[in-house]
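A quick aside before the break. I want you to see a complete sequence-to-structure record at least once, exactly as it would be stored in a machine-readable document. Don't worry about memorizing anything.
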Amino acid sequence: MSFFDKLKGGAALPPAMPLATIAKSAIGAAIAIAVVALLTQSTGNPWVLGSLGASCLTIFGYPDLPFSQPRNVVVGHVVSTLVGLCCLAVFGATWWGMGIAVALAMAAMMALRVVHPP
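That is the input. The structure line, written in tokens, reads:
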């Protein structure tokens, strides 16, 4: 199947969710992001990361998926953070260092079986 066929919806779509499930997922995500944003505002330190929104989608929207399990979420984020900080120390904030950091974080999560997409 080509990219354009998939773009038109030719690939298998996830099943439609009941409105109650969608509402619960949205409320959970709103509360989680609001709490993290409140921590950022009250401490003056950045707590909000770009990946938190995507994490909320997997955790609250698809809680039964393997990627949404607590082990994957917590350990996946910790491993990725450690890899990112090590790459920052070694390569600095360079465009190619960021690419290497993402690649190594993906490889580490896959090797440890703690993949969490965001």
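Two observations worth writing down. The mean pLDDT is 90. The helical segments are 3-7, 19-43, 51-61, 70-91, 95-112. We'll return to this after the break.
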